[in-house]
């Protein structure tokens, strides 16, 4: 019986303020609180609150037959609590229905797996604790930042106890295979792998309001017919997308909310179809094959690789300089400095430095608050220069190893 599996990414970064060379050593405040609050409230009004209402309505109407899943970054959860607690309450109301699954990811939506396995595990652990605290769920499924995936990511997830992991159904990895089956990652014995059906997902996320698209307008009946056509060629239709698709990327005037209100009825009209969460899919289906992914892939851009974040020298310089701070951050064990370092790891900061202005140019321009990738790099490196000064100053203020606080005070008095 084929199933539709909806997964929505919910993420908001802490955006950096305009930070000049003259702020270095003089201003320890890196984040643009006004922008962060204004953007979150705008997206909450356009997307989070109305779309959560739509999902709650659909779950109640279909009496548990309609189900979805979310991965909400820790930085988004923190901003919900700080700026829009009603958004957090609306997600909690969805969680209480029993038809919504919350997944795990890195707390700060970071690239930590690529640079520090210790930091990666720590962020995932903190995220799991946060999900348990806020939603009373212990996540069984993992998705890495921006669906960044590799055989090693899968093995790490299996070692951490997860039942399943999500990834992009990239053509260069799948070849002749279909994303509409459950797979098992190479090198794993228990973990299940769910692959995004990017063609159907992108019909909603990117093409829905494009009047030049031959299939415009996209109706629920038309989309359901495409899904039903998978019936004899697969068991699972994984629709993965940014949650901001609804109301923000595709405006309410496009009809996106009405489309979603009608879609469950259209899908369930076929008696063999159902909706499943990722855990339900992993538990009810058997892998059809092992999938070997020896090169990193993601769901970003046409290349489905890491070049959105690590495609030029500026990005490499910035991120290596940031992770070079890790030994000192850990040695100091200062909560404020650790929090600042982790928020600087958020992948958006490096995405803003991307110089790909070809097939994916409009996407990068849309999300980029800077005038150019170079401006993003300079601003980030100015912040990082100040952060390193703060690390050094904190280290200088600490007593030498083996000397406790009282002994240090006596030495100073002498």
Descriptive report:
The chain is an alpha/beta fold and 414 residues long. Helices cover 48% and strands 10% of the residues. It is built from 19 helices and ten strands. The protein has helices at 33-61, 74-83, 85-95, 112-115, 117-135, 151-159, 171-174, 198-205, 220-228, 256-268, 278-284, 307-310, 313-323, 326-332, 335-344, 348-351, 361-367, 373-397, 405-413; strands at 3-10, 68-72, 100-102, 141-142, 164-168, 184-185, 192-196, 236-242, 274-275, 290-291. The strands form three sheets. Strands 1, 2, 3, 8 and 9 form a five-stranded parallel beta sheet that branches. A three-stranded parallel beta sheet has the order 4-5-7, with helices on both faces. The longest helix is centred in the N-terminal third of the chain and has 29 residues, at 33-61. The termini are far apart. The relative contact order is 0.14. Residues 405-414 have low confidence and may be disordered.
Describe the structure concisely.
This protein is 48% helix and 10% strand.
Work out the number of β strands.
Answer: 10
Main pleated-sheet profile: 5 strands, parallel
What is the subunit organization of this protein? single chain
Please state the structural category. alpha/beta
Number of helices: 19
Q: Hey, roughly how much beta strand do the residues contain?
A: 5-15%
- Whole-number mean pLDDT: 93
List the uncertain runs.
Answer: 405-414
Order of helices and strands: EHEHHEHHEHEHEEHHEHEHEHHHHHHHH
Overall shape: it is globular
Could you tell me the radius of gyration in angstroms? 23 Å
- Terminal-residue CA separation: 80 Å
Question: What percentage of residues falls in helices of 4 or more residues?
Answer: 40-55%
């Amino acid at each position: 019986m084929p199933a539709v599996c909806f997964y929505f990414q919910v993420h908001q970064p802490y955006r950096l303020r305009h930070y000049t060379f003259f702020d270095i050593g003089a201003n320890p405040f890196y984040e643009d609180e006004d922008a962060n609050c204004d953007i979150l409230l705008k997206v909450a009004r356009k997307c989070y609150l109305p779309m959560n209402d739509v999902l709650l309505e659909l779950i109640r109407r279909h009496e548990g037959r309609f189900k979805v899943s979310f991965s909400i970054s820790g930085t988004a959860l923190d901003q919900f609590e700080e700026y829009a607690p009603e958004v957090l309450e609306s997600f909690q109301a969805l969680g209480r229905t029993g038809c919504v699954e919350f997944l795990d990811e890195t707390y700060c939506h970071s690239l930590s797996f690529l640079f520090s396995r210790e930091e990666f595990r720590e962020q995932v652990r903190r995220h799991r604790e946060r999900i348990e605290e806020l939603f009373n769920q212990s996540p069984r499924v993992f998705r890495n930042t921006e669906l960044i995936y590799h055989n090693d990511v899968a093995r790490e997830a299996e070692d951490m106890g997860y039942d399943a992991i999500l990834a992009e159904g990239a053509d260069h990895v799948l070849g002749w295979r279909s994303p509409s089956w459950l797979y098992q990652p190479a090198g794993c014995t228990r973990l299940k792998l769910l692959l995004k059906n990017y063609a159907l997902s992108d019909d909603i996320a990117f093409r829905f309001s494009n009047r030049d698209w031959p299939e415009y307008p996209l109706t629920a009946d038309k989309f359901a017919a495409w899904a039903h056509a998978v019936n004899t060629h697969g068991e699972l239709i994984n629709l993965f997308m940014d949650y901001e698709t609804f109301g923000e990327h595709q405006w309410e005037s496009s009809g996106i909310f009405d489309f979603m209100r009608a879609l469950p009825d259209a899908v369930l009209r076929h008696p063999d179809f159902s909706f499943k969460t990722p855990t339900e899919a992993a538990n009810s289906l058997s892998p059809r094959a092992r999938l070997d992914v020896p090169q990193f892939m993601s769901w970003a851009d046409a290349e489905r690789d890491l070049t959105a974040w690590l495609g030029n020298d500026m990005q490499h310089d910035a991120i290596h300089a940031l992770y070079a701070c890790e030994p000192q951050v850990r040695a100091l064990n200062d909560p404020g400095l650790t929090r600042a370092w982790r928020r600087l790891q958020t992948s958006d900061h490096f995405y803003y430095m991307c110089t790909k202005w070809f097939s994916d140019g409009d996407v990068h321009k849309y999300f980029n608050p800077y005038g150019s990738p170079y401006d993003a790099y300079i601003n980030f490196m100015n912040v990082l220069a100040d952060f390193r000064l703060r690390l050094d100053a904190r280290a200088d203020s600490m007593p030498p190893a083996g000397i406790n606080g009282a002994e240090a005070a006596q030495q100073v008095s002498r």
